[in-house]
Write a structure and sequence with these properties.
The protein is an alpha/beta fold. It has two domains: 220 residues, P-loop containing nucleotide triphosphate hydrolases (Rossmann fold, 3-Layer(aba) Sandwich), CATH 3.40.50; 69 residues, 2-Layer Sandwich (Alpha-Beta Plaits), CATH 3.30.70. The protein has eleven helices and 13 strands. It has a six-stranded mixed β-sheet, sandwiched between helices. A four-stranded antiparallel β-sheet has the order 11-12-10-13. A three-stranded antiparallel β-sheet has the order 2-1-4, with helices on one face. Helix 6 links the parallel strand 6 and strand 7. Helix 3 packs across helix 4 and helix 4 crosses helix 5. The radius of gyration is 20 Å and the shape is globular.
């Protein structure tokens, strides 16, 4: 069996709309991040490697298996898509156990694997609760647990950090790093360049359906250091958080969002900003609900980095 995920001159068109074009990649074990704005082709690339799409031309292989061989591919790949959907009335445990039954796990074997997966994402306390009552971050984590439950070799994650609070975000990043060190193939799509820089062994930069650069990115932090990143923080008291944010040297601007339920922050050092949010969350003075990049600014950073418009194409 091959030890790489390979794309050989792969193109995918949706009628006359370009998904990806002429992509040739060889992805090894560890963490590989797909980076680009919405419409750059990241999700199309992930759907191709998981067999959800067939290429218009070219060849895809995942550890020697063609995605058209769905039964074999299903055994080695775990996929956590960006959008969630759950059967009505299902608990977190049932959601994972029923998925494991598709892999042939029954009875006690499925029971143990389901609880082990919930433990990996710190959701055992909520395992018997209905998913309908989960927060957005909890739903994100239970989907990650499902993708991990059958112990795949390849883990494909589309925007897996969206919707997580700072503490859950840090724990999830630690999990990804652990899986990468264990030799798993972890493919992550992200808008957040600072997080990509921290956790990735390699990076694929995409724009308008094309791969514009790939490899490691030790220079990324320096290149974007003076280009502010905008982050939206949803929290219980935006004004109180703003008072904590304004004293940070790396913060360029902070303003309360139009709906009064969040704070928009522009910072020159996203890593330090996320560390500060972790301290705020731990203090318990402000209840932080979600942290997410503001798309307009992330796109501008991406354009600044690669000198591309990044428009057009499919996700």
């Amino acid at each position: 069996m091959s030890d790489r995920i390979r794309f050989e001159n792969v193109s995918k068109f949706y009628g006359e709309v370009l998904g990806v074009n002429g992509v040739s990649l060889s992805i090894g074990p560890g963490i590989t991040s797909l980076v680009g704005p919405n419409g750059s082709g990241k999700t199309t690339l992930m759907n191709l490697m998981t067999g959800l799409l067939r290429p218009t031309q070219g060849r895809v292989e995942v550890l020697g298996i063609a995605p058209s061989d769905a039964e074999r591919l299903f055994r080695i790949v775990g996929y956590c898509a960006q959008w969630d959907s759950f059967p009505k009335g299902v608990t977190g445990y049932q959601f994972i156990r029923d998925y494991l039954s598709l892999h042939g796990f029954k009875g006690e074997g499925a029971h143990k694997l389901a609880w082990a997966a919930l433990e990996r994402v710190d959701l055992t306390a909520a395992g018997d609760r209905k998913v309908a009552g989960y927060s957005k971050g909890m739903r994100q984590r239970v989907r990650l647990a499902q993708a991990l439950a059958h112990r795949p070799s390849v883990l494909v994650l589309d925007e897996p950090l969206n919707g997580l609070d700072p503490m859950a975000r840090a724990e999830t990043i630690d999990l990804f790093e652990s899986l990468g060190r264990q030799g798993m193939y972890v493919i992550i799509s992200s808008h957040i360049l600072e997080e990509v820089d921290r956790i990735s062994d390699s990076v694929v930069l995409m724009a308008s359906g094309y791969v514009v650069a790939e490899g490691n990115i030790p220079q990324v932090r320096q290149e974007v250091k003076d280009h502010p990143v905008q982050v939206l923080v949803r929290c219980s008291s935006p004004s109180l958080l703003a008072s904590r944010v304004f004293i940070q040297d790396h913060v360029v601007e902070a303003k309360i969002s139009n709906d009064g339920r969040g704070l928009l922050v522009r910072t020159r050092d996203a890593e330090e900003f996320y560390k500060m949010l972790n301290h705020v969350a731990a203090d318990g003075v402000v209840d932080i609900e979600t942290v997410a990049p503001a798309d307009e600014d992330v796109n501008s950073i991406y354009q600044y980095l690669i000198g591309s418009s990044g428009d057009g194409g499919a996700q």
